Amino acid sequence: GVSTVIAVDGPAAAGKTSTCLALAEIFGLRYLESGRTYRIIAFEALRREIPVDNAREVTGLCDDLIRESRSAGLLTSERYAPDKLRATPVNVAVSAVAKIADVRQRVTSLIRLWAKSQAQCVIEGRDIGTTIFPTAPVKFYLTATPEVRAMRRVRQERAGSYENVLEDVIRRDEADMSRAVSPLAAAEDAIRIDTSGLTLDQVVSRMSSACLNRG
Ligand code: C5P
């Protein structure tokens, strides 16, 4: 069928997941957290002691995981507890995995395949509006200062000390923005929202009015 995608991109901890879940609830959309797939690949690489900067080996692992989980199943797999995928070693490894062109190409195909089977969906990530669905009718780019983002994450998840979380956020942003393939960037036609001074409800209400206007 013809599917409509709402694309939500932005740096780490900018509020993508909480706002997407709220939008999905309001409009009855399926929701996909694309970063989770990169985290699963990084997690499995660490578990199997595959060096995360070895493009050939990590791509081989990616193919194995796709085969084992019957293609799109990897995107929605519930085998992995969220706290495992959000642990520090995975945070450190994930950007290395996500910069491998052959891995991105495979994850991109899986996401497109998944979206085809949805009537309407909201997908969050780094390259959804720029690379994966460049013609999506509604795109958002959420940002906030690194300090605000780190503070929110510390409060929400007890994710470690503020200093460590801030360091992780800054390091991943730099890695994600500077990679050669599909670097993190706002699509030209994305609605940019700086969420630094806004509550979750305020962000969600801006996003939902934009969906009603454009979608
Ligand atoms: O969204 P989340 O913080 O869970 O993403 C984890 C990592 O996965 C990001 O830092 C980025 O390196 C990678 N990612 C990506 N493209 C996406 C989603 C996530 O490169 N569409």
From TrEMBL:
GO molecular function: ATP binding; CMP kinase activity; dCMP kinase activity
Keyword annotations from UniProtKB, A to Z: ATP-binding, Cytoplasm, Kinase, Nucleotide-binding, Transferase
Gene Ontology terms: cellular component: cytoplasm
Residue span(s) of domain Cytidylate kinase: 6-208
Domain of life: Bacteria
Main location: cytoplasm
Residues binding ATP: G10, P11, A12, A13, A14, G15, K16, T17, S18
Record InterPro entries: Cytidylate_kin, Cytidylate_kinase_dom, P-loop_NTPase
SUPFAM superfamilies: P-loop containing nucleoside triphosphate hydrolases
Keyword Magnesium assigned: no
Family of the protein in this entry: Belongs to the cytidylate kinase family. Type 1 subfamily.
Protein name: Cytidylate kinase
Source species of the chain: Amycolatopsis orientalis (Nocardia orientalis)
Gene from which the chain derives: cmk
